[in-house]
């Protein structure tokens, strides 16, 4: 272990004041992440008017962000600030498995929401018969089970590290919870976990906005009777929802693409990416879970309204629903 150390933590190069400020800001970030997503969970769960297929998917994605803030970010905070992993190698694997799983669960949800909006706007006559509660349940099972099987299978089998010279010695001697993907699994993770879903979502949203633009032109040229106005308002509402969710998708890609891209190229650079840089990119990804409630609050009037009800304690009134 002379090359890596003997599992003892290296002397921290940060002063106590810097570590205190980092703890303060990161603690504030994960507390706000937990509270913001908890507000979404309570809003959609409590108010029956919000029980729709799209909102059930948003609810499940909020659960993902809540778990990331509640169960993952505190341990990552200690590792980042102290430059050491104090919780043992077994918990290191469990922690990273859940971390990877929740990230993949988020992008699976974004793909599902894109498909939901595609049917709502491009095939409105078939939407209610296609996106039923039963269908949504099946989609949610897939969104959680597939990433869980992938993440835990890859991490605990250590297939991701196959062929990396010196990795076994690094695991035995390091105190930093090292997880390094080889060229094969780095490419698979980037392609399956980010690139392919992103291409699918971008293609769907381009199609949605093309169809929406055509509908707008058709409605502006035709006389609008009472029924037509209702249809127009309904479709306009769907377009606004699709626009909001496309911003959520864009936020996810901006936050997580640098981290996934680093995982992809790091083995080709002989694992020369500095640990502080990789740590920073990982926290940029975590920031997405903090941003999602802000996006919903800014673009969704129903969330702002229900959030006020929650703050005022009206939801504790049994006659208020």
From TrEMBL:
PROSITE patterns recorded: G_PROTEIN_RECEP_F1_1 (PS00237), G_PROTEIN_RECEP_F1_2 (PS50262)
Membrane association type: Multi-pass membrane protein
Source organism of the structure: Strigops habroptila (Kakapo)
Location within or outside the cell: Cell membrane
Transmembrane feature ranges: 20-44, 56-76, 96-119, 139-164, 184-206, 245-265, 285-303
Protein name per UniProt: Trace amine associated receptor 2
Gene designation per UniProt: TAAR2
Domain G-protein coupled receptors family 1 profile per the UniProt entry, residue ranges: 36-296
Keyword vocabulary terms for this entry: Cell membrane, Disulfide bond, G-protein coupled receptor, Glycoprotein, Membrane, Receptor, Transducer, Transmembrane, Transmembrane helix
GO molecular function: trace-amine receptor activity
Keyword Cell membrane on entry: yes
């Amino acid at each position: 272990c002379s090359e890596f150390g003997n599992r003892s933590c290296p002397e921290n190069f940060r002063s106590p004041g810097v570590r205190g400020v980092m703890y303060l800001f990161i603690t504030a970030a994960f507390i706000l992440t937990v509270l913001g997503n908890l507000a979404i969970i309570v809003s959609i769960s409590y108010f029956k008017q919000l029980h729709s297929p799209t909102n059930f998917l948003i609810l499940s994605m909020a659960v993902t962000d809540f778990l990331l803030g509640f169960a993952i970010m505190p341990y990552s905070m200690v590792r980042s600030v102290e430059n050491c992993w104090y919780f043992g190698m077994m918990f290191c694997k469990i922690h990273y498995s859940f971390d990877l799983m929740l990230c993949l669960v988020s992008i699976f949800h974004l793909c599902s929401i894109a498909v939901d909006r595609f049917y709502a706007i491009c095939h409105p006559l078939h939407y209610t018969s296609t996106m039923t509660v039963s269908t949504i349940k099946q989609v949610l099972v897939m969104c959680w089970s597939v990433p869980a099987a992938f993440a835990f299978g890859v991490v605990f089998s250590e297939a991701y590290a196959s062929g990396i010279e010196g990795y076994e010695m690094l695991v035995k001697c390091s105190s930093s919870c090292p997880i390094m993907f080889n060229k094969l699994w780095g490419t698979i993770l980037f392609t399956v976990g980010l690139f392919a879903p992103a291409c699918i979502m971008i293609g769907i949203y381009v199609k949605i906005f093309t169809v929406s633009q055509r509908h707008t032109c058709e409605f502006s040229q035709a006389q609008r009777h009472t029924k037509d106005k209702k249809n127009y308002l309904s479709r306009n509402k769907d377009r606004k929802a699709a626009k909001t969710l496309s911003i959520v998708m864009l936020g996810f890609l901006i936050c997580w693409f640098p981290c996934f891209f680093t995982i992809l190229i790091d083995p080709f650079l002989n694992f020369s990416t500095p640990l502080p840089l990789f740590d920073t990119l990982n926290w940029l990804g975590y920031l997405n879970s903090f941003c999602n409630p802000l996006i919903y609050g800014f673009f969704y009037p129903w969330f702002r309204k229900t959030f006020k009800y929650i703050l005022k304690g009206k939801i504790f009134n049994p006659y208020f629903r």
